[in-house]
Amino acid sequence: MKKRYIVRLSSEERGLLETLIKKGKGAAYKLLHAHILLKTDADGPDWSDSQVSEVFGCHARTVANVRQRLVERGFEGALERKKRETPPRERKLDGAAEARLIAISCSTPPEGRAAWTLQMLADELVSLDIVESVCDQTVRRTLKKIH
Questions:
Q1: Structure pTM?
Q2: In the chain, where are the structural domains located?
């Protein structure tokens, strides 16, 4: 199969990769990506994806992905993992809801109480239709951020 993304490393990039490998310190994925880039370099050994995957114990698709990232995102992009664009879950309390929570927690507690409890604050947020649902631990973490 013909390679779609060709790796061509400069002497400086090759030196950086060799130094990274010789040190042996760093994330395992980063060291693996360095090995892959060095072995698939068209001006160097120019190994096939299957050869590289056999030697380093990874999938051939991993080799192809690293080569593709080098061409599309550059040298640093090939060594690093892609950063997540969105969090795994949406936040329950956005900035406006956090401000309302803080305002409620600073206000006087309900009659018969000396202070707000976390559960009371969570229930108040729901009763005021600020959020659909929220647990007391989310309230705790939010309040902890400001103190």
A1: 0.66
A2: 11-79, 95-142
